[in-house]
Write a structure and sequence with these properties.
With about 250 residues, this protein is mainly beta. The chain has two helices and 16 strands.
């Protein structure tokens, strides 16, 4: 993750790995697909201890997670739970509210953000297009992508999502921000509820600022986010207060 506060300052670069638990609640209300996602970044030793307990307070997980988030210069990941909603095909996923706010570009790895689903059953070889809005810096930008069904595994569709080559821009206070996303991921989606069973991806997002400074053109990269991720659904459960590891025996999601 790279962040530069102005064209006169040096960039701050941070490279690190993260592991932990993502909790996803999903349901349908008034033909809208509603979900809530909570993220808990946890160190390896502590994560192993959690897996050996019958239950763990979510408030305890939140304290450890916020300590990890706040130890970094640049925000990455969810600081607090987020609510999302969309239509049943996921064509308009956003944070609900009067303005329907998009997510930051570094949060597109979260489960159920991608992809749009087709109107018909996703058969192997089938291809379609999708898009969503993402926030980067002070701008909101469209992210267009293509989807292809690679296979159906136990009748669950395995989809490859590839971000289109694109540069989109917005001008704010005489500064033009240019957003350039790229990358791909493969997601196995449950035929039962549309949530991911497994996902693995490699995404990169770049934001450049262009302006004229006293007759001199300035073009600097202010944000660059490169993320590799793996998510795996585990046989665990949770409620508002506790996380129950249950029969969780696989390696944690990363």
């Amino acid at each position: 993750m790279m962040c530069r506060e102005s064209e006169k300052t040096s960039p701050t670069n941070e490279v690190y790995s993260r592991q932990g638990i993502l909790l996803l609640s999903a349901g349908v209300e008034n033909s809208r697909w509603k979900r809530e996602i909570s993220e808990y970044e946890i160190e390896t030793v502590q994560l192993q201890k959690i897996r050996e307990q019958p239950k763990v307070e979510r408030s305890q997980l939140a304290v450890a997670h916020l300590a990890a988030i706040n130890s970094r210069h640049t925000r990455f990941g969810l600081s607090f739970p987020v609510e999302l909603d969309s239509d049943m095909r996921n064509t308009d996923v956003a944070i609900p509210g009067p303005e329907r706010s998009p997510l930051r570009q570094d949060l597109l790895y979260l489960p159920t953000i991608l992809p749009v689903m087709p109107e018909k059953r996703a058969e192997p070889g089938m291809e379609w297009k999708g898009s969503l809005l993402a926030i980067s810096g002070a701008g909101r930008f469209p992210v267009a992508y293509g989807v292809k069904t690679l296979a159906r595994i136990a009748d669950n569709p395995q989809l490859q999502i590839t971000i289109d080559a694109q540069n989109s821009s917005v001008t704010l206070n005489q500064i033009t921000l240019v957003f350039s996303p790229q990358g791909s991921c493969v997601v196995d989606i449950s035929k039962e509820d549309g949530t991911p069973l497994h996902a693995q991806g490699d995404l990169t997002f770049s934001l450049r600022a262009k302006l004229d400074r006293d007759g001199t053109p300035v073009n600097v990269e202010v944000i660059k986010c490169h993320q590799k991720f793996t998510l795996t659904k585990i046989p665990a459960s949770f409620d508002d207060d506790y996380f129950y590891p249950g029969a969780w025996t696989k390696e944690p999601a990363k």
